[in-house]
Design brief:
seven-stranded antiparallel beta sheet; 4 helices
């Protein structure tokens, strides 16, 4: 893939993700006090202050982004995640063959800016045909976990 072709690929992925985000049913995700990801069942839950689950999404973790260090770490390379989560995330390595870039196979933390992190998420969402993405901030706001949403539904309780 030439540089121009790669830029066109990125641009199309970002435009597609933006359209998906606008059309993604959020079921009021922004109104919930908490988000929690359960590595054992692969589900992202949004809950009220009282602990009532309002929305459940099936997701793949793409990676994490450090706002302070401006660095990216792939989920498949993150030892703090369960083996099953890391194994499922290896699907994103396939983008190395699509783009010709080693970036998608580099296990070391990668220095990238926030815009490049979102472009990476867009390419990953397109690659797996996800419905959209979610940026899950840590409690201190310094780390963001990037998810590809594969299914989302409102719930009455967990």
């Amino acid at each position: 893939m030439s540089d121009d072709e790669f830029q066109q690929f990125i641009d199309s992925c970002v435009a597609e993700l933006q359209a998906k985000q606008e059309g993604l049913p959020t079921y009021g995700i922004g109104s919930f006090e908490r988000w929690d990801f359960n590595q054992h069942d692969g589900k992202l839950r949004f809950t009220s202050a009282a602990g009532t689950t309002g929305v459940v999404a099936e997701v793949l973790i793409i990676g994490t982004y450090s706002l302070k260090a401006e660095s990216w770490k792939w989920a498949w390379a993150n030892d703090s995640m369960l083996t099953e989560i890391r194994t499922k995330a290896t699907v994103f390595k396939e983008l190395a063959a699509v783009t010709g870039l080693d970036f998608f196979e580099d296990a070391d933390p990668l220095e990238i800016d926030p815009a490049t992190a979102w472009e990476t998420v867009a390419m990953c969402v397109k690659h797996v045909g996800a419905l959209g993405a979610y940026r899950g901030p840590s409690s201190d706001g310094r780390l963001v976990t990037m998810f590809a949403i594969t299914r989302i539904a409102p719930m009455l309780s967990a």
